[in-house]
Amino acid sequence: MTAHTVSPDAPAQPVPTQHADSTPGTTSARLLALLQDGQARHRLIEHAPEGRTDVVSALRGNALDQAAKCIVVRVKVTKKSSRYALAVVPGDRRVDLARLKELYGARHVSFADQATAERLSHCVSGSIVPFSFDPELELIVDPGLLEHQEIFFNAAELDLSLALHTEDYQRLAAPQVTPIAEPLTATAS
Question: Where along the sequence do coiled-coil regions lie (predicted)?
Fold first, then answer.
């Protein structure tokens, strides 16, 4: 595993390692350019290819609640009208679909099918970033993720992750922040 740190005080430099999907125009390249242009404090972390939040968090060495779990959801507003949201929650939680239904005043909320999620996020499943580069995809983040100084997520590639300063994430991504997470397992009452 290799880590590269970038701070706003450092002179702008190209990403030291070129990955298969880091060619100009890819989501990874677009994300890294956004971070560099926005002088975001971040670190690149190379690791074995992995998209499962718990496993990749162990590879990166971060706490699970610092991992940004990114899920594309379909919000059925009326019988004939749907919209999509990128729901981002801490890695130790899950998306609360009932809360999203209430938030949007929707008839139904469900996980988007894989093809739609990949089309709207411009990422393969398991590497979706907590940024929206598509006007059809609304970005909504649970505040629990933003409690840490850094957040961690795959950088639109299964073998490359980012550790990003939370303040810089909020500034550059400009997400809607509202509670949308629930515990992974329901507790008996």
Answer: none
Q: Say yes or no to pLDDT of 150 above 50.
A: yes
Query: Which residues contact residue 24 at a Cβ distance below 8 angstroms, ignoring those fewer than 6 apart?
Result: none
Q: Which two tokens stand for residue 38?
A: 């926005």
Q: Is the Cβ–Cβ distance between 41 and 168 less than 8 Å?
A: yes
Whole-prediction pTM value? 0.86
Q: For each of the domains in the chain, give its residue range(s) and CATH number, in order of start.
A: 40-182 (3.90.960.10)
What is d(CA 40, CA 171) in angstroms, rounded to the nearest whole number? 9
State how far Cα 79 lies from the chain centre. Answer: 29
pLDDT at 6 over 70: no
Average pLDDT over residues 29-49: 96
Residue 33 backbone dihedrals phi, psi, to 5 degrees: -65, -40
CA of 91: how far to CAs of 5, 65, 78, 144, 167, in Å?
Answer: 23, 5, 31, 10, 19
